[in-house]
Amino acid sequence: MSILIQKLTYKHTDQETLFEELSFVVEKSEKVALLGNNGTGKSTLLRLVQGELKPVSGRILLKGSYWYVPQQFGQYESCTVAQALGVAVKTEALHQILEGAVTEENLSALEDDWEVEERAVASLAYWGLEAVGLQTPFRSLSGGERTLVFLAGINLHDSEILLLDEPTNHIDCKNREKLYNYIPYLRAAILVVSHDRMLLEQLPLTMELTKSGIKRYGGSYSFYKEQKEVEEKALEEEIRSNEKMLKQARRKAQKTAEKKQKQEARGKKQVRKSDGPRILNNALQDKADKSSARMQGEHTEKIGRVGEELSRLRLEVPDRNRMKIDLGSSGLYAGKILLKVSGINFSYPEKNRSGLLLYR
Asked: Which of 107, 163, 285, 315 is a Cys-bridge partner for 68, taking CB atoms 3.0 to 4.6 Å apart?
């Protein structure tokens, strides 16, 4: 086992529950694609696993070192490339030692990793970043270069767990192809969020995150799509079957109600005409009322039961037609300018006597 998620619950800052008591396992060396509709919380789940976010409750256990390739890089705006790669402390200690400061503090910081700088430079070069130095400001890089820096971290750290959030965003075809070919040879447990179907095909296991939990599929993206089509057709058939049952139950309940009304009317008429003891007539009427009420209750219970099942099934239908936009929190990364406005003037147009529009 490399990743253990146990009864994980997370709520947005507005207290909306994103997922509740979510549980799954990624075994050692498993390569898993994490799929799901927009808004189900795939990227949020990776941020929880990585430790950037904290859950309301539940347990997250990572067995081994990990490397995280994020989708957004705003938190690294003030960093150097070395800091983004997580080797700044080691390289600084190495330089101080080479300059003669052979202190216990520097040796401890270096952790006997004398080739750290060489490996970092080689890792950057592997992804075509020969011109990018370790002291290069991260904010000076393009979107594609930023992604490639974090992909270089895979080579550099040789971690046991990889968490990749849209790792092919902004990079060119050559480097995408390089990543496709690289994935099968990695020994790490990998959890990937991506819309890149070519990348998803390189991952032999698929998990789908939905409102009701997470489901594991034993195959790549194409296998997952085939299984989903089968499941959705079965779901549609089950919904139609329950809709038919609900209509039949409502019709039967309506007929029962109409029959009860007729029986009550006849019963009252017979009681008025009857010469028998009143107590006997009342007992017969009470028995008839209880029988009708019991039948009506049975129909109502069935309608409720079928209706609840139908509602549950409809919730499982994929919501693909609704556009969801997640802007995140504007205060997440200090110093990042999200919007700058100045010198704006605006007025509504007015019409003159000739009907022409005038703008002031």
From this structure: 163
